[in-house]
Amino acid sequence: MNKLFLIGILLLWNLGYTQEVAVAKYAGGGDWYANPTSLPNLVKFCNQNINTTINSKVATVEVGSAEIFSYPFIHMTGHGNVVFSANDVINLKNYLTSGGFLHIDDNYGMDEYIRKEIKKIFPDNPLTEIPSNHQIFQEPYSFPSGLPKIHEHDNKKPQAFGIFIEERIVLLYTYETDLGDGWEDTEVHNNPQYVREKALKMGANIINYVFKN
Asked: Using CA atoms, how far apart are residues 73 and 75, in angstroms rounded to an integer?
């Protein structure tokens, strides 16, 4: 039933209905609410530049709730601990195998926790680094070197990892880039305009991939 429901939502969006996206709320003590202006700014950028019709009111949804099936794209971020309960794991797996998409953006400090939780969802399907020639880096904006660096932490290269099901990315984990910082209001991090633009364009590529695949 969940799969048919999500397919129905996607068909309605393809007919021109307003799309909706959400921020994931999770347990464990990590600040799931970090970067509050990020996703609204990305939505605004996409609606203005890549012809999406996403609702400007971004929702918040708990990862263990059936409500996640109402959103084809869910964004998750934070700096600290993440814990998925048994119910969260089942719910997220059903969501992702039914056509949903989860983008996890490490806001620094999340990596050691989130990798273990992702493994709970897909114990036999490990995170795979996404090559720079993948379509998610090609359209509508070109990133020939792959994931851009937005916010420096440990002088490590930015990496994009994915969980693939039938060649489609269903879970995207972006590490050592901090895309969400680049999506935030300018005064939050005082990033130069060209850095914010890179972040927003990469975010638009992610949104484009979700709604076209």
From this structure: 7
Please report, for the domain that includes residue 183, its CATH number: 3.40.50.12140
**What span, in angstroms and rounded, lies between the C-alpha atoms of 172 and 132?**
14
Strand, helix or coil for residue 105: strand
Q: Which amino acid is at 116?
A: K
d(CA 204, CA 158): 17
Q: Are strands 21-25 and 73-78 parallel, antiparallel or unpaired?
A: parallel
pLDDT at 84: 98
Q: Are 120 and 63 in contact (CB under 8 A)?
A: no
The token pair at 48 is 């203005």
Q: With beta carbons less than 8 A apart as the criterion, state whether 31 and 80 touch.
A: yes
H or E segment at 50?
A: none
Query: What pLDDT shows up at residue 114?
Result: 97
Instruction: Give the chain's domain count.
Output: 1
| Residues 73-89, mean pLDDT to the nearest whole number | 97
What pLDDT is attached to residue 157? Answer: 92
Instruction: Give the closest residue to 166 by CA, choosing from 212, 204, 213, 130.
Output: 213
Residue span of the structural domain in which 27 resides: 2-212
Q: Which residues contact 56 (CB under 8 A, 6 or more apart)?
A: 40, 43, 44, 47
Distance, in Å, from the CA atom of 136 to the CA atom of 150, rounded to the nearest integer, reads 17
